[in-house]
Hints:
Chain A is mainly α. Chain A has 13 helices and no strands. The longest helix of chain A has 34 residues. The two termini of chain A are 24 Å apart. Chain B is an all-alpha fold. Chain B contains 14 helices and no strands. At the A-B interface, α1, α3, α4, α5 and α6 of A face α1, α2, α4, α5 and α6 of B.
Amino acid sequence: MAKRSALPGFGLTVGLTLFWVSLIVIIPLSAVFIRSFGSGWEHFVSAGFSDRAIAAYRVTFGAAALATLINAIFGLLVAWVLVRFQFPGRRLVSAAVDLPFALPTAVAGIALTAIYASNGWVGSWLEPLGVKIAYHPQGIVVALVFIGLPFIVRSIEPVLGDLDRSYEEAAASLGATRLQIFRRVVFPEIAPALVAGCAMAFARGVGEYGSVIFIAGNMPKISEIAPLLIVTSLEQYDYAGASAIAVVMLVASFSILATVSFLQAQAERRHGL
Amino acid sequence: MNKRSSLVTPLWLKTLLIGTALAYVALVLLLPLASIFVEAFRKGVSTYIEALQDPDALSAIKLTGLVAVIAVPVNMVFGIVMAWAITKHDFRGKGLLIALIDLPFSVSPVVSGLVFVLLFGANGWFGAWLQEHDVQIIFAVPGIVLATIFVTFPFVARQLIPLMTAQGRSAEEAALTLGANGWQTFWHVTLPDIRWALLYGVLLCNARAMGEFGAVSVVSGHIRGKTNTMPLHIEVLYNDYNFAAAFAVASLLAGLALVTLGLKSLLEWQHGDDLKAHGH
């Protein structure tokens, strides 16, 4: 094995770290898994995969996927504009991109509801066109678009900034068009970062609660998200049921993030060495 | 000729791209932000001030401050300890430990609250014992603090670990060789090198601690004037159709978000090199 570090504090800091991680992360999270199976496998399945729960997963994952897709396109555009162009207010736009990280989700939720309600700034424009957003499943997508944008912009930006322009120059001198250069030279380079950003935005969107519940309308089986179903079960003191839904969601988001970090490690190996 | 034409973006395309990006940012981010302040003052300044002087609002503001004052320093200290353990020492399972530290970021806020109800709630693992000893955690302040510590757990460590890894150990080793003890080495060598990154992590940690909704909502019990933090108080007011007051309290949190973003940008601008792990 490698030589022991010369720096002091091994026992103290590693010990405290293990203690703290166990106390705050490992023990509480294992409680969910243990409790979800505490009332037997059958109760786990009947609570975790009831019709209402499955409808909630469909709404939650569907809305998160759609929001991520929208942000993948526009987030890439925003990152591109911020990295490649100079324009007045660029720094302000760059700071604004992080707003969803800093603005509390409940505040975002009531603000978005006010805008997209039928008498709101955007809602009153859409109403005559027959487009409804607030208190409908579409509202969930709007909330998750807000929540997810910075994840995608912030993961593409550094990669795009570090990109060696000489490949693009080479492609151009060989006669490639602008679109060809983007598709064949630039996009493959930024694709892993785009995928990673999308995965983070998706995982965050799936778990999101605060901004969604105000705008969703929360109709069971139509616009009810899985985290809300957990809260509802908990209010009825159905701990095992709440835990079962939580376990399904935890397993889903852990698998997404594990898959992405595996794909990224592979991409790095291919590029790096 | 051809080379130029496909490398330089023509003005019309550049204008189109910048215009679309700005329109998207304005629609998705700036419009909601503006609406908070417009709605807050819709019924006049006096209604705004009245909403903030309401005893329940004041107690929510106090509770939010209290929770942040406990959770943020705790996470700061343990964030430094965890980053030191991981970056200054070698041991097996480091990758797993880093993944565990990051884990709270990928857990739904509602689940983050749920875990503490399962442990300390009336029907929880320690519920009966706690009741016997007359200790209340769930539907009380300790539960809110615990849930907040959980959701803000990774902020400081995650900011410090890449930076301290890149900085290496040679400066500390030199200090020790020159006769400094462990504390002196940390205080005079390590801390000055990580202070801006630490401040950055603490800033983000604080914003999340004051704004957390889902996790806190599950453990708080929504007792007015007692266990409602500012985000929970907003929900109560909103559900009572007291929109002006809800947006008035929301405007305070939006102001906090703007200050956070301002300081964050300032840190990135002034100390960008000290925040991120450069070198190889």
